[in-house]
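A.,

Following up on our hallway conversation. Structure tokens first:
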């Protein structure tokens, strides 16, 4: 107990009104000193009248920090969290003249979820121009129906057959054009980068890619290898766009 703080009580044998008043005042002074002493211990040096103000200032600071971390402003309703706090629909496209795989996912922060997938198969008996036209019409309808926010397409790899590489490049041009016509930004990724981003190895085979896609996207129903590759392309874009956004924020 600090110096000067002593227990004061009623004096024994005090008679009359003056003695009672004096004892009451001493007890009141002792109570006030005790309140101040407790406040100094538990209030970090601040008197009791400032505790409520300090708590109010602390709550305001916490609420402001919450707004800066992606909360919604109560006044304007505007999201302050930047690109990572928004839900984005990503369309992955695996180009091919015989079969073009596509996969649609949603990405919000570090969470990804499966939406849809499939493959476009133009009739093989048609002429090259007609097959490209059928692919373009199918992709155009796909983008219009699902309304993706961003798209990603696999880059053309080096093929031993020049004619096959040329046809694949023409189909890839259609795949790039379809989202761009709807003002959807399109990213491009090499095959090794896609496999390394999803599987962890740049030379993984299609079976490993499909298995990892099924693990990263529970509930996904990729009926063909082309659809699984397209979902892998969408996942690759989701991972890399998050890294780019974090670099932009920092």
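Then the amino acids I'd put at each of the 250 positions:
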């Amino acid at each position: 107990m600090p110096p000067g703080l002593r227990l004061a009580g009623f004096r024994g044998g005090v008679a009359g009104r003056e003695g009672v008043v004096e004892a009451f005042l001493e007890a009141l002074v002792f109570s006030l000193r005790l309140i101040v002493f407790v406040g100094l211990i538990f209030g970090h040096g601040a008197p009791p009248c400032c505790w409520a103000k300090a708590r109010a200032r602390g709550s305001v600071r916490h609420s402001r920090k919450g707004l800066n971390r992606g909360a919604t402003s109560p006044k304007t309703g505007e999201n302050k969290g930047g690109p990572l706090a928004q839900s984005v629909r990503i369309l992955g496209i695996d180009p091919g003249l015989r079969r073009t795989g596509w996969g649609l996912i949603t990405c919000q922060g570090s969470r990804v979820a499966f939406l849809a997938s499939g493959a476009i198969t133009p009739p093989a008996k048609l002429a090259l121009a007609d097959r490209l036209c059928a692919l373009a019409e199918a992709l155009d309808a796909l983008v219009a129906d699902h309304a993706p926010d961003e798209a990603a397409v696999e880059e053309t790899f080096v093929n031993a057959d020049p004619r096959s590489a040329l046809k694949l490049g023409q189909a890839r041009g259609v795949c790039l054009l379809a989202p761009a016509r709807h003002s959807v930004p399109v990213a491009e990724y090499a095959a090794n980068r896609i496999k390394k981003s999803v599987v962890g190895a740049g030379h993984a085979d299609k079976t490993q890619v499909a298995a990892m896609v099924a693990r990263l996207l529970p509930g996904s129903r990729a009926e063909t290898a082309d659809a699984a590759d397209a979902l892998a392309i969408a996942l690759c874009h989701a991972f890399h766009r998050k890294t780019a956004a974090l670099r932009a924020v920092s």
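The CA atoms of residues 8 and 27 lie 6 Å apart. Curious whether your intuition agrees with the design.

B.
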